[in-house]
Batch of 2 targets.
Target 1
Amino acid sequence: MKITQLFLAFVLALALIVAGYFLLPSQWLRNSGVLDLVVVLDWGAGNHDHLPTGVDGTRKLVKAVLPGDRLAIYAAGPQVSELVRGPVSSAAALSILDRQIAGLRPAIHGGTLIGESFAKVSAAFDGFLRNYSGKHRRMLVVFSDCVTGSLDASDVSNLSVAGQTSVLVIGFRSQNKDAVMQVLLGSDASNDVLIVPPGEAAEALSGFLETIRSQCHSLRVPRIVLLLAFSAAAGLMLSMGLSQITARRWADVSIRLTNDDDEGTSQVFALAEGGSVSIGGGEQLHDFAIPVEGSCSVARSAQVLSLLPGNGRLLLQRAGEPMVVTEPCPVTFGDTFHLEGTSVTLQKG
């Protein structure tokens, strides 16, 4: 196989790989159904300044979820609204949810029912566990200052977040720190809790998203190998098909030589692979008035035409001044050459 055909096959295969990566559903390329994610977004009046950070972060988390994962999002303020809870059905459903989150506005007055929010978080994780068996990863993200006067130690046992959960809290400044931390750590204190101020939200979220990507949505290696193999085979087949189409187009190619000095004077010659057409020398194109001492030829190799000098002065006319031809040079249809003063144009027959 020629180098040009191999290069074309490589380019086509690369194009198919890129197209497959962007066009195939993410869950086809990556594992899904492992993630149990719950998000609490505080829209209470006291969290007014930091709501944009929470909205932006929640939207990033939604974009990271794949169909098959389980997701719950609660908007917590003077009342707690459940935006979604259950297995993610499709990317379209996530798109609708994203627009709903983007439209969330802070409360004008009223605090945050953080205790009720944690009760819903616990219920969501319990529901995910009952409806799922196998490997899964629990993650909780709370965008809230967690300021509440309604949460005390007596509530902790009923609100505790399920064990073995990765917890990220952004903006925590609750005075009921002990009670809130007991809820977040879980009844057996097995949860991994990270608390950061709003200014460090971007970095903390990046780490969370990377964990989701690497531990919950790892690449499906067999399918990636299948995509690579399919792309390589398809690229090779396409390049061979294009080569055959080109070869057929050139199989019976003929050239027309026209004497520009004598209007209407032309001759057509069939030019097979490896063949050539002699011009001048008193043998062909006698009606071109080419002196006997002048001769040249046009040869074909695959899809390349070459002008070969013979006897006499030979010039190739392209942009600018004519070029003296002293050794074989490539030509194409539309080129004009001058042999001993006679102007000849090369055209497709």
Note: The chain has nine helices and 16 strands.
Target 2
Amino acid sequence: MEGTIRALLENYDRASSMRLHMPGHGGALDRADVTELSGTDDLLDPRPAGAIRASERAAAKLFRVRQTLYSCSGATLCIQAGLAFLVSKLPPDAVVVCERRVHRSVLHALALLDLDPVFIEDPFDLPPRADLLIFCGCDYYGRIPDYARIARLCRDRGILTLVDHAHGAHLAFDREGELHPARYGFDLIVDSLHKTLNCLTGGALLHLSSDRFGDEEAAYEELKHFFRVFSTTSPSFLILRSIEDALVEASRDGKRILETERALFARLRERIPGLAAAPDGDPFRLVLRGSYDFEKLYFELSKRGVFCEFYERDALVMIPRFGFTEDETNALARTFDELLPLCSAKRAAAQVRTERIETQMTPVRKLSLRRALLSPGVWIDAFAAPGKLAGEVVGAYPPGNALVLPGEVLTKTAIERSGRSRIRVVEETEIETGRDYR
């Protein structure tokens, strides 16, 4: 893969002696920060033979999919546009099914599109009728579902699919992509490059992977239409260049980098008690579990300049940069050798089991996603929220998954686990008593 976007920006920079166009800094802040001009191309309406379209086509070949679209507004834009595209292919009475643990950006997109799906705990727990399945691929914890089985089930039943694979873009470059959903023929796949590759924040990809939509170029144009519906009209060329740079690096060196990291992290797991990889999961995600005080550990690490992605009651999640070195691995191991004895915590197994059971109780839902999110809301102290209806996605961020969905009754256990001090609830006048949206 070559850097056609980088070349375009370099050529424009050499040719421009005076910039009488946006942005207002005129190149003073960064010479590559330009706007959509006849000499620079337009991400939302790229020229057929231009640099952006050439780069996207090269990316599609790299991921072995039919089309790839670049996003400078993160995976959120890809999810919004992808869902709108798929819904446009469905009948009015279609049944949309969504895995409950999806990221809040999926829930917000569903609300914006006025969709109120059937929520399921497991992608295999499909209702008798399902027309579209939205589910989570590789997640914050490195867990990877059985893609082959899900793909086979959906193909046999004619179900359209969208995979929120925001945490696994790097897996396309490891061992022929065996852990990436592009291998399995799902319809649309979202990759968030900035999470696991050397890309600026906001860089993401939407892949059209299946052949179910006829003319691929026509499908690409329709997807671009939905990108224009939701995207900023001024996508950043700095992020756009970073997307391409990250893919160029991964195409040239990704296999070598990941082979090195795989060996480093395997040794790290042998050395650090509780640092176990998820079975059949992402070998490059570091998740520490065990009898530790994770809050104390997180902040002790921070004092030493080691900032992790997030912690919760039962885990510490770390996302090493793409290209993590042996020296960095050894330094991390020494830090854990020092801190883990200081951060041990004994908690009764029965207590942990009880907490998990309580959070998995059947939720009580009274309002649709859209109505709960867009109706007038009131912000109240969390201690007063149990029994009221959530007017937002309630859960810790990160990871951004819902403990309580908008429109569901808030519970004391879920509120405590979210760590929230204030919560948006739906105004009482907006609640129609007796109506059940389940």
Note: The radius of gyration is 23 Å.
